[in-house]
Amino acid sequence: MRFWSPFEDLVADVHSTEGFVNSHAHLDRAYTVSPTMMKLTKNHLHEKWKLVDDIKRSRTVDDYARGIELALDMQTWYGTSHVCSFIDIDDVVGTKAIDGALIARENVDGIDAFFACQTLKGILNENIELLHENIHKFDILGSLPGADKGQESEHIDVMMQLAKDNDLMLHVHVDQLNTPDEKETELLCRKTIQHGMEGRVVAVHSISLAAHKKSYREEVYRMAKDADMMFVSCPTAWIDHPRSETLMPFHNAITPVDELIQHGLTVAIGSDNIHDVYKPYADGDMSVELRFLLEACKIYDKDMLKNIAVDNGLRVCGIIN
Ligand SMILES: [Zn+2]
Q1: 151-167, pLDDT tens digit by residue?
Q2: Which of 62, 106, 187, 280 has the fewest CB atoms within 10 Å distance of its CB?
C-alpha cells in the first residue's frame, strides 16, 4: 500500500536544496566510543572528563585528522552540506585537534567545514595564550562560559573582545542544564548589546530558558531581538536530561524553538556529540535531529522546518545574512 509521509517529503525537500546544515558539532570527539567504553557511559560527568582527557593526551595530529575525516565523510553521506564543529584547544590537547581538523578539511570533498574553538578548560588562565597564538586557525570563535565557573561574565567579556579584535562571529554554549538556576541566555543578550556585537552572536542550546516562567522568557526573547542574537538547538543532545524534583514550568528538555520563532528569532540545528562517551548512540544524522525538534516543539510548518534545517544554519555560520 502506498502512503504519503510528511517527514519523507520534508527530508526530500531539504536534500533537493543545499542539504542539511549541521550548525553545532564536536567532530574531534566523534567516533571515539568503543565497546569497552560503553560501561563508562553512565559514569559521573567528572569521570568522563578524565577519560576524555586521557584520549586527548594519547591521540596524535594524524589520529585527529583521520577521525575528523571519517566524521566529515559520514556527514556528507547523511546529506549535510555544511558543518560547524567546535574543536578543543587547551593545555591537554594543545593544537593537535585543530591541526588535524585543518588536514581533514583539505582531504574531504563535498562538505564545507567551519571550525570554532572549544574553550573547555576555561580562558581566564594560561589557555588564553594558546588561543591567541592559534586564533588564525579558526573560522568562528567558540565559547563555554561554564568552563570559568563563577566568572562567566568575565569569560564572555574576554571572548567578545577577542571576537571584535579578529572580526569573528561568536558561538556560545549557554543554559545547558535545564534548570531555572541558569540565566546565561539573558547574560549573553546583555553582553552582546554592551559590546556592540549585535548580529554576530549565536547562543548554543539555551535549554534552561524553557525552565523559567513565561514573563521571564518573554523578556529574554525581547532582549535577544534587540541583540539580534541567533540560536542553535541540538534536539537529541539534552533530551536525556535526568528526571528532577525541581518544580518548573512544564516543558520538554529542549530549546523553546517554537517560542523563539514566534518572536522572529533565527534558529538553526546541530547534532552536538556523535558516537562518543557522552552520546554513544548519536549518529549525527541531521534528519533525526529535525524529527526530534519537530516532535518536541510541535512545529509542523514545512517551510519553517526547512528554514531551520538549511538557511538558518547558513546564517549562524555567517555564510548568508
Ligand atoms: Zn557543544
Answers
A1: 999 999 999 999 999 99
A2: 106
